[in-house]
Sequence to fold (446 residues):
Amino acid sequence: MAATELALFGGTPVLTEADHRTWPVVGDEERAAVMGVLDRGILSGGDAPEARAFEREMAARAGTKHALLTHSGTSALQVAVAAVGVEAGDEVIVPSYSFVATALAVMCQGGVPRFVDVHEDTGNLDPALLEGAITARTRAIMPVHVHGCPADMDEILAVAKRHDLPVIEDAAQAHLATYRGRPVGSLGVAAGFSLQSSKNLPAGEGGVLTTSDDALMERANQVRNFGQDIPLASRDAYDPRRPLDGSRPHVSLFPGHMFRGNEMMAAFARAQLAKLPERTRRSQENARRLSAALAELPGIRPPHVPGDRTSVYHKYRVHFDAAEAGLDLAPRALRDALVRALCAEGVNAVLWQDHALPEHPLVTKLEGFGRGWPFVAAGAPADLRASYAAHHFPRTRALLDSSIVLFSQTRPLIAQPPEVVDRYAEAFRKVWAARDRLVEVARAAG
Ligand SMILES: Cc1ncc(COP(=O)(O)O)c(C=O)c1O
Fold:
């Protein structure tokens, strides 16, 4: 059989699962770090030594005065939403393309998400649409640095300033990315990063909030600890013999959460953070290599990164244009056939998302946690319902229909050696050279 025959039709795959490196990579440093925690015997506590050390190191990387460890990226964002003062029924503007956690972090704090469409090429919030989404109830703006590429922060911050609104960065996917020379995490008033296993900075699960605002940090620390009256200043009085006992009674001032991290997570994350700059360079070099190869193919557009920022390529999204490629096929049909053909070649090709956030029943039903909460607190349900209509988000839909993500959560780009990246280019070239056959695949799938 010819080497050009697609694996989908019985040809030989270009690569196998076993050729890939899996993620996260657990080395001797991570093992020693976690064992050190177990040997020390202090496993928990917001002020415990690994958590504090990780926070200092993360703040240094993000260019902020403070960092606060939480148990997930979602909780880091929720703490930020609470700490900027979002109250029941307040609206927070978020992009229509993201992981659902962006909207959930708002809703779980009693706020209501209002969505703004994105640039089709980067997937990041389009600041030109922001003014139109601001209402009397808007309380914050939360752009996402999607796939590790920073959002248009200066334009977003300019609109926010005009309306006196805080900007929270959803930096869950963007550790060490930079915007006009500054690290993400330091661009808004606060940011939330994820440490979940697939992320460039993994710790199993976990999250971290960054900020340089002392008052916000004070409030965030309370939100993270049951809404208790624990002053930040008391952190230095930490007693290792009594990691969770305060030196005085704690009174809960408002409904907070128990969103602390733990010591194993923090120790693991510290070991990973030390390796992150080098790994980020590898991810960027991998992306450069793959993008150079894919850009040669008709109708294929590798990820776009504006020249004033760096992406860390947490996800690598490839766009295609069926007409430019000479194919008479609807984007979605081509997308699904392409994923099938690439997967058959041994490539990890995924959709990652197939819904715009405003399409999720989570919001469209306006039911929330029951009895319409938190939507009822915002009032004007008809206005909100109208704002979630699909016709407001054509570019999110176009992006989802006409692009795919190469690599996966367990086999991300950042983990791969150049040889694997080159096989991805080879597999893509092979499938694209036989793209007429994708029409057959798509038609057979109906
Ligand atoms: C854009 C975005 N925001 C928030 C999150 C939430 O992070 P976590 O899963 O750590 O809660 C994720 C995680 O996948 C994400 O991709």
Observations:
- The longest helix spans residues 263-294.
